[in-house]
Specification:
The chain has 91 residues and is mainly α. It is built from four helices and three strands; from the N terminus they run αβααββα. The relative contact order is 0.10.
Length: 91
């Protein structure tokens, strides 16, 4: 069996590297999970579209359909894309 001896600076650097690797992996997994879900809540939909909550609220007021099941509000990704395509115009 081998033993690796690190000084304090090396331990700190290794700890930072491990932390960065783990947090990056968690972020990537969350993003992949979000892309795999066909329906998102309002906060997730804002992140997915890259818009503010106020803008999403305007989209809903303009007719973006929202599934409301026992108070849980979900918006389909395909529905959001269809809504945006219906509102495309040449400027």
């Amino acid at each position: 069996m081998f033993q690796i001896v690190l000084d304090q600076t090396q331990k700190e650097e290794l700890g930072k590297d491990i932390y960065t690797t783990v947090t990056d992996a968690i972020k990537k997994a969350r993003q992949e999970e979000q892309h795999a879900k066909p329906y998102l809540n309002k906060k997730e939909m804002c992140q997915w579209l890259g818009i503010s909550y106020a803008t999403l609220t305007k989209f809903i007021a303009y007719g973006l359909p929202v599934a409301n099941i026992d108070g849980m509000k979900l918006i389909g990704k395909e529905t959001a894309i269809k809504f945006l395509k219906e509102h495309e115009e040449f400027l």
